[in-house]
Design a protein that fits this description.
Helices cover 79% and strands 0% of the residues. By secondary structure, it is mainly alpha-helical. It folds into two domains: 49 residues; 105 residues, no CATH class. The longest helix is centred in the C-terminal third of the chain and has 29 residues. It is globular and about 70 Å long. Keywords: Antibiotic resistance, Cell membrane, Lipid metabolism, Membrane, Transferase, Transmembrane, Transmembrane helix. It is found in: Cell membrane. One of its GO terms (biological process) is lipid metabolic process. It comes from Anaerobutyricum hallii.
């Protein structure tokens, strides 16, 4: 029996990376074209930016995606559908990405649902997990707001 080459074994992953890269390039191009920001203005802004702040923001963004993915993973696991950490990260990253490029508040949830359904999670469990995740997110925002009001009442 002839063994498959590394490329043949990972063909779907390679195609996936290419498709995602093309989508990212198209998204970035579209955002720049429609926003009125030129590449020169972006370059100037990046030169003036605090690299420590950019690094901290990037780490925070990855943390947000990771922990939201963990929340989704725990929710579906308790419904009887085990999911890997990497799958939770994909669910959350799809949510964040599509929420950022769509004007509606629920832009990323259908993308998350797609990947969850693709992993064999029942539609009812997917919808319940996404709804519970939205509720937890809303409660977190309300809690942070309440704590801010209690600690810094002069802001209001």
């Amino acid at each position: 029996m002839k063994e498959k080459s590394i490329i043949q074994q990972n063909l779907k992953k390679i195609i996936g990376v290419i498709v995602v890269s093309v989508f990212a390039i198209i998204t970035i191009y579209t955002v720049f074209r429609g926003s009125g920001i030129s590449l020169n203005e972006l370059t100037a802004s990046l030169k003036e930016a605090s690299w420590e702040g950019i690094l901290l923001a990037s780490v925070s963004m990855l943390g947000f995606i990771y922990f939201e993915g963990e929340a989704l993973r725990v929710l579906v696991r308790h419904m009887g559908y085990p999911a890997k950490r990497s799958h939770g990260f994909v669910y959350s990253a799809a949510d964040v990405y599509f929420s950022a490029i769509t004007p509606s508040a629920s832009g990323g949830q259908p993308a998350s649902a797609y990947f969850m359904l693709k992993d064999g999670i029942a539609g009812t469990a997917v919808m319940a997990a996404l709804l519970l995740n939205l509720i937890m997110y809303t409660l977190a925002i309300l809690t942070i707001g309440l704590v801010d009001i209690l600690i810094f009442p002069e802001v209001f």
